[in-house]
Fold this protein.
Amino acid sequence: MSSLVKVPLLRWCYRLLFPVVAGLASPYYLLRLSKRGSPREGLTERMAFYPPSIRDRVGGGVDLWIHAVSVGEVLVALALLRELRRTAPLLRVALSVTTITGRRVALGAADAQTIVLWSPIDFPGVVKRAFDLLRPRALILVETEVWPNYLWEAKRRRVPVLLLNARLSSRTERWYRRFPEVFRPILQGFSLVLAQASEDVDRLAGAGFPPERIFVMGNLKYDVANVGSGQAEPRCSWWEECGWPPDALVLLAGSTHPGEEEVMLELYQGSRLRHPNLRLILAPRHVERTPEIRELCRKAGLSVALRTELGQIPASGSRPDVLLLNTTGELRFLYEKATVVFIGKSLCAHGGQNFLEAACAGKPILVGPHMENFAMLVREFRKERALLQAADQTELLSLLEELLSSEAMRLEFGKRAHGVFGRNVGAAARAADVVAGLLRTQREARAG
């Protein structure tokens, strides 16, 4: 069967099967949405039926459409936009976001020239309506977002598509390699692929992305973490309300997932016997788990204060053992206050979380064995002895004790982490140059 036959057949199969799969998975996603807001929120926009307010703002179309999913991808998109705005402040941008938390971050940072939308579902009619409204000169998909109808509709309209900060999880790579006749025709639709590191190039090409269009740009997550560095004091003006002594050792457990808070409480209680001035900050990945975690602290016999309750503690009142961060957007500014940082979703869950903000702050970093989503970063930091990875809870306790007992060790690991971080900032500016060149080429082609 020729490739000319394969692609239309693949397109029809996808368009028939995806709605079925989406329908079967909808109860799961509706449940997840209901935990973080209304599951109906943005439903009409997700189907690309836009209100007059958005249509009026879009007007004759946008220069750039960026599609992100959740908070991490949105922050990468915003890092790119900050660089683009330096030379093109009037660039008209549509930023589509999938999750409720990602949308909140996007709305909080968007400027007057950026329109924030719910991401259209990847149904052909829906994607067509979105393109009809936005009429972008270029489309950017962030990191791992490969949606066939987006790519096919862009190709039909001769709109170049760029994959920004491209990465492949080992699981995704295995799927792409296992079914090349399915995925390769889709992945060939990218005009440019901006990879995070040189070692990604072979993996991306082997998975089916066009090798001649893959370029190493660096990891934009470094630029995301670099924004706001050194601004801890203004954003943490409430810190003194904790009432913790100036010489307190602070263990910060960031972006924790179920099961990890129990481990942190156990480690904290054990370590406090040897370090009475030790205090603990728990920053769960999902703030809706606050009541559950608060109860865990109480059952452990520890006093706990919510970040939002700090102002209510009388000056003469007892100081909390544990600070529970129940706000969004403040974790990045708390790293400056930490003595040791543990990164969640790495011990009792899989995938890990981004630790670059802790590296930017120059802090010693502890992670568990499960950092699959950041394997490349972990390898780079471990190679430079800028990060400590524990195989299990027992080793985590041992490493924590070493760090708490040695200021010199803490300073050395923090210094090395900050050094690795500093050498890798700048990918956003390089990517912005590529995007600006792409838009310039498009403008010249249309003028010609």
User: Anything to note?
Assistant: The chain has two domains: 3-218+426-447, 232-424. The first strand starts at residue 64 and ends at 67. Confidence is low (pLDDT under 50) at residues 1-5.
